[in-house]
Amino acid sequence: MALITPCAFTSRIRGAVINKEPRVNERIHVDKVRLVGPSGEQVGVVHTKDALRLAKEANLDLVEVAANANPPVVRLMDYGKFKYESAVKARESRRHQTNTVIKSIRIGMKIDDNDYNTKRNQAEKFLNNGDKVKFDLRFRGREQGRPELGVQLLNGLADALSEVSTVEAAPKAEGRNMSMVLAPVKKKTHAKSDQRRRREAKRAEEAAARKAAAQETPAAE
Fold first, then answer.
1. Looking at residue 213, what is its pLDDT?
2. H-helix segments, 24-167
């Protein structure tokens, strides 16, 4: 039988969010329960009062993990410890979650060298920060009849940025437009860590330079 992990969940009633937790110990108001031991072993159907007695003898809690089962399924556990560990895991999970951002860069077929380098450097900055980059190429006039030139231009950008990215979506024509998506090699969390280390190293260098300058400055007579 698959068990539902006991955890807090929310329900919304008339716009209000209400927290609801599983029933624990004396809050379990049924005659019989299907008991699961602290290590997941199946004890079987027992009277609730007997399950409560076993919980007290083991210095554990009796927690309802499947209220809709017949009879309800309960488990012996240290509920306070469980809630604490669950909260810690939830915080760690949120800390490591990153929101993927797609930065859009528009280019044209008649792009000059300076603009090309500017767009490439801009894309490299985004990619080093852990964001994806979408190049949007707009065909004008007769350029629409030469889509292979657009593919060549976008592939050239992909090659120029190959050290910091991979091609997630190859050049694809959509009417008068063509797009390509590059994904960063580094995950955003790693990119942020690298940025933090660079900032700390820079501050350390500046502090060392100020200290050296102060030591070289002759004392006023």
1. 74
2. 48-57, 79-96, 113-128, 147-160
